[in-house]
Design brief:
heterodimer; A: mainly alpha; Rna Polymerase Sigma Factor, Chain: A; Arc Repressor Mutant, subunit A; 74% helix; B: mainly alpha; 68% helix
């Protein structure tokens, strides 16, 4: 029998009160950052820089472009300093939204400049990593075949280390909806890997 | 609940102890579940490997740009040492930090040298300059200029008459000498038919 309470708390639904307090604290520090507090700026940079980079690196499949996008995210936030801003309730979500938009812009631009039909499967824009096995390449390419929203969800969970409730909060969705989507995306990945493993065994 | 969902819950620790025991018993007999778990293990290991590679990606460039951005907003971070400490906090490597510091110091030294090179650099020139400054600061020299200036002084006129007399006596002596010389012979030129030519030559 499924212990509903346990599941709810594990999904992070039970943490809502605590997370709300943390969120309000983070919101205050973010406003301090925007009002010129350098210590708050450093706190946010250290807390989010690597996560934003990982997120961008997986979405655009290129570490160098991800670095540029991460830098642009910070530039955009710094530009907001000393300007009258409405209070940002969810700084993490705000920063990831900037990163998401920049990544989408980049992907759109890439789509405009290179037609997918004109390149072979081997030349699919995916950063080559020396020492990676066939299986690793397969996992990465399978991740790319997912819908953007599903891929984003898995990246936030598996690469950036966010819990599903945190992702739900950032995306403004219910944790259950996020859980269902993540489970579906993960199932697709598993199926692809399972087929590959079967082929290898044969 | 389908097998993917059960696997997800098992992996996320969302199953109760009884459910976990049941699931493990089922895995022993169900090849499908085993393959799902195996593919999940592969996905996790591949993603973790890639994540670790991305975690070691050098983001000092982003950190440098962030600190520069903070400095450009005119906050306290614009002061050298504070900037350096912030840069270190932001994750810039020591090598990058040392190189950028050395560069900035050399640029500052160059600028200082350039500004000072417009003035005199050797001590002699500096001393000369000081003397000139002293002269400029000294009392002004007054020169008494007479209202009328005589063209010739009486002494100069006397000298002039004396020299005239001397030259006249010298000329007289020469004339006496000329008279004492013998008279020159007149020679008739042979081919002096022209009426314009002199008939005789001394």
């Amino acid at each position: 029998m499924i212990n509903k309470q346990h599941i709810e708390s594990k999904k992070g639904i039970g943490h809502s009160g605590q997370s709300q307090t943390l969120r309000s604290e983070e919101s205050t520090s973010f406003m301090n950052f925007l009002n010129g507090d350098d210590n708050a700026a450093m706190y946010f940079f250290r807390a989010y820089n690597r996560k934003i980079f990982l997120y961008c690196a997986k979405l655009v499949n290129n570490a160098h472009i991800a670095e540029d996008i991460t830098q642009e995210v910070w530039e955009r936030i710094i530009k907001l300093r000393n300007q009258s801003q409405p209070e940002i309730a969810n700084p993490g979500g705000f920063m990831f939204t900037i990163a998401r938009n920049l990544c989408l812009n980049h992907i759109k631009l890439r789509k405009h400049t290179i037609s997918i039909e004109s390149i072979s499967e081997l030349d699919i824009p995916h950063e080559y990593q020396p020492g990676s096995t066939d299986m690793e390449e397969l996992v990465n390419s399978s991740l790319d075949t997912l819908k953007f929203e599903d891929k984003e969800l898995l990246v936030l969970n598996m690469f950036c280390g966010y819990r599903f409730d945190e992702i739900a909060e950032m995306m403004g969705m219910s944790p259950n909806a996020i859980w269902t989507r993540a489970s579906r995306a993960r199932a697709q990945l598993r199926d692809k890997v399972k087929i590959m493993v079967k082929k290898d065994n044969l | 609940m389908n097998s993917h969902e059960t696997v997800d819950k098992f992996l996320n620790g969302l199953l109760s102890p009884e459910e976990t025991a049941q699931f493990l018993q089922k895995v022993e007999h169900d090849a499908e579940l085993r393959s799902l778990l195996e593919s999940d293990r592969i996905i996790n290991s591949c993603i973790n490997k890639e994540r670790m590679q991305l975690m070691h990606h050098d983001l000092s460039g982003v950190a440098g740009a962030f600190v520069a951005g903070l400095a450009s907003t005119g906050s306290i971070a614009s002061y050298g040492l504070i900037t350096a400490s912030y840069a270190k906090k932001a994750g810039m490597s020591w090598i990058t930090l040392a190189t950028s510091s050395a560069l900035s110091i050399s640029v500052c030294a160059g600028a200082y040298w350039f500004i000072n090179s417009n003035g005199p650099t050797n001590p002699k020139a500096a001393q000369k300059n000081n003397q000139l400054i002293h002269v400029e600061q000294a009392e002004p020299i007054t020169i008494n200029v007479p209202v009328t200036i005589q063209d010739k002084t009486p002494e100069i006129a006397k000298n002039k008459t004396r020299s005239l007399k001397q030259s006249q006596t010298q000329r007289g002596k020469q004339m006496i000498q000329d008279v004492s010389m013998p008279p020159s012979k007149k020679i008739q030129l042979e081919h002096s038919s022209s009426k314009y030519r002199p008939k005789t030559q001394e």
